[in-house]
Amino acid sequence: MPREASGAGSKSEAGADHRIGIGYDSHRFASGRALILGGVRIESEVGLAGHSDADAVCHAITDAILGAAGLGDIGAMFPDTEPANKDRDSIEMLGAAVNRVAAAGYTVANVDVSVIAEIPRLTPHREQIRARLAMALGVDSSVVSVKGKSNEGMGWIGRREGLACIAVATLIRKSE
Ligand SMILES: [Zn+2]
User: Fold this and answer.
1) Cβ contacts of 7 within 8 Å, gap of 6 or more
2) Between 165 and which of 33, 43, 60, 83 could a Cys-Cys bridge form, CB atoms 3.0 to 4.6 Å apart?
């Protein structure tokens, strides 16, 4: 049987082993809290509630890369019962996940994130967020995509109760 038809996944002739992971996160808006997305503090009347710094972008990406490598999820890696994780910097958590994934033999190829929210407007902060995430992921910002999307006023996101993020990450097995 030809190799392409074996259905054994995405192992190419060059031996590159690609893995894809998805991550989702949501946080409730809260007054008196900072709004931090992708490691960037955004001026806003409302922030996000959470045990850590509630950076939903970082949390979704962390889950995507851990998921791609089959290494569990952010909740298992950083339990919110652990006092050390209170108000923790999520960029640092993302970096720790990247290190764990690297130890398993993978490097990040690209990341794509959608932030679903009525507020804030993401566009003015997009390049700064991409750069901050790229630094934490150890990649060039050209392979980090950040997109903002409203929910057309529908449901809890439409009522501005909070925001949600969906992230997809691709990993490549490092060549020996
Ligand atoms: Zn979160």
Assistant:
1) none
2) 60
Q: What is the pLDDT of residues 23-67, one digit of tens each?
A: 999 999 999 999 999 999 999 999 999 988 999 999 999 999 999
What Å distances lie between residue 16 and 11, 115, 129, CA to CA?
6, 30, 29
3-class SS shares of the chain: helix, strand, coil, % to 5? 35, 25, 40
Does the pTM surpass 0.70? The reply is yes
Residues 77, 67: Cα–Cα separation, whole Å: 12
156 Cα–ligand 1 center, Å: 17
Cα 141 to middle of ligand 1, angstroms? 22
98-127: per-residue pLDDT in tens?
A: 999 999 999 999 999 999 999 999 999 999
